[in-house]
Every structure is written in structure tokens, then in C-alpha cells.
Amino acid sequence: MSLLDVAYPRIHALYELLNLLEDHGATTASRFRQLRDLTPFAVQFRYEELRILDANLDRGEIIRQVRDLLTHTEILIQQTETSG
Fold first, then answer.
1. N or C: where does the chain have the smaller number of CB atoms within 10 Å of the terminal CB?
2. pLDDT per position as a tens digit, 45-56
């Protein structure tokens, strides 16, 4: 969002952050939609018992998407540094 010069709220709601990216033209944000299922792990897991640990999360797919997101972000940062 910083690369898009988008003001963003200090929240951990991944679905809201992904929506904000899409609203500002980040067309690749939809590729990482499944990561929104990780929102409960952002805060609740730190402070209270999380009861969705048995949820039907496709862990392999989530790991793949996290790796892809990290790679995508690194590429965007490198492109900005190169052009900047």
C-alpha cells in the first residue's frame, strides 16, 4: 500500500486490507484472497485460545500463497528501488 501511496488503517483484518489494495488498483491482490482466512491468527491467537485450529484450512495452499506474496512484494520493492 505504501508503494501505491495509499493511506491504510492500522488493522489486522486481512480481508479489509486486500479489499483496500484492490480498490486502489492492485490487480494481484485477488490472487492472495485465501490468506484472508488467516485473520484470526493475527491478534486473537496471541491473546486468547483460538478454537479454529481444526478448521479446514488448506495449509499447503496457504503456505504457497504466503511464499508467492513474499516473492511478489520483494519484486515490487526491487522495481521501486531500481526506478527510484
1. C
2. 666 665 655 567
Identity at 43, one-letter amino acid code: V
Phi-psi domain of 5 (left: phi exceeds 0; alpha: psi -120 through 50; beta: other): left
What is the pLDDT averaged over residues 3-27?
89
Tell me the C-alpha distance between 11 and 17, whole Å.
Answer: 8
Cβ atoms of residues 21 and 4 within 8 Å = yes
Cα–Cα distances (Å) from 27 to 2, 21, 22, 53, in that order, read 15, 8, 6, 31
Tell me the C-alpha distance between 84 and 78, whole Å: 10
User: Within 10 Å of residue 20's Cβ, how many Cβ atoms?
Assistant: 19
- Return d(Cα 71, Cα 66) in angstroms, integer: 9
For the stretch 29-41, pLDDT in tens is: 788 888 888 887 7
